[in-house]
Task: inverse folding
């Protein structure tokens, strides 16, 4: 399916935090109480500062979607489902989504591993057995 966007954040950072007050998840829109572990994302998009949170379930869902999109040859920058489209993505699917397991950090490592594996396969297909000096 690949997700295409005309705009990208001008700067972006994310970290896993233990919240000090209730926050609404950007994916499922549920309110999570203080003390919840969530992904905190901040940056500048279209000239405006943003700061949003995502719960672990939505984070794992988004990582699983990215892994599935990479398996279907989507480039890295188009494999990421926008947070606001997570639930729509699931309702539009005809077959079950293979979910990644473990912690969000382990799932992200799996997505990165898959990405590198696919890049290596494309490199080998392009260059064949010839070794390329970088």
Result:
């Amino acid at each position: 399916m690949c997700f295409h966007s005309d705009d990208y954040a001008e700067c972006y950072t994310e970290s896993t935090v233990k919240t000090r007050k209730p926050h609404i998840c950007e994916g499922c829109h549920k309110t999570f109480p203080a003390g919840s572990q969530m992904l905190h994302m901040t940056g500048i998009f279209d000239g405006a500062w943003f700061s949003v949170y995502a719960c672990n379930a939505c984070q794992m869902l988004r990582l699983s979607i990215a892994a599935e999109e990479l398996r279907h040859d989507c480039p890295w920058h188009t494999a990421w489902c926008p947070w606001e489209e997570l639930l729509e993505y699931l309702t539009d699917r005809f077959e079950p989504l293979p979910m990644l397991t473990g912690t969000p950090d382990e799932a992200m490592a799996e997505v990165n591993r898959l990405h590198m594996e696919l890049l290596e396969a494309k490199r080998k297909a392009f260059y064949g057995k010839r070794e390329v000096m970088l």
